Amino acid sequence: MNPRPRDYDSPALPLSYSAIFTKRTGSVMRDFKLFVNILLAIIFVIPNFSASASKISEDISFLNADNKKINLEAFENNVILIHFWATWCAPCTTEMQVIDKLQKDYRKRPFKVLALSEDYKGIEAVKSFYKKHDIKYLDEFIDDKNAIFKDMMIPSLPFSVLIDKSGNIVETYKGAVNWNDEEIRTTIELELKEIEGEVTELPETNADGKTAG
Hints:
Elements: H1 15-52, E1 61-63, E2 69-71, E3 79-85, H2 90-105, E4 111-117, H3 123-132, E5 141-142, H4 147-151, E6 159-163, E7 169-174, H5 182-196
Parallel strand pairs: 3-4, 4-5
Antiparallel strand pairs: 1-2, 3-6, 6-7
């Protein structure tokens, strides 16, 4: 705890200089506090996300367009992209249109984008945004009371988390992303092959191709 400044027996400064000194001191203290808060966020928040988020809990829930609670387990056996965004987030506006195309491209495969809005105005803000920007392939979801955002200690918006069929985190993406990027698409494809490439064991056959036994 910093000691309070002491009053020394020194010649009094003229009022104008005293006021300037006080103003500058206050400004420096505010800047110092801001620096400390940012430093703490870097030390604790971002590393904690990486350390604690090797797997996503199936118990997390959010609200759909009808304000009904949906659990993540409802999308099991899918590759999932959880995308944190908000209508007031400038970088999110353009990116949402690209993510909508991403969902369109994979709409017939076991891939689901869960675009979780962090809007305090609720699902109506999401519905208005989707209508205004012609978002057709993404479902409307909202992170109720920013619960998931806080629990996962997401550092900023937009932020995305790619999850495999077992709920393990494959990749995290901070900031706006080009979802048409070849490397990102390849990562998604590799995870999809883990699902689509699964083949049940075939029965044994004889040399003539007939089932054995």
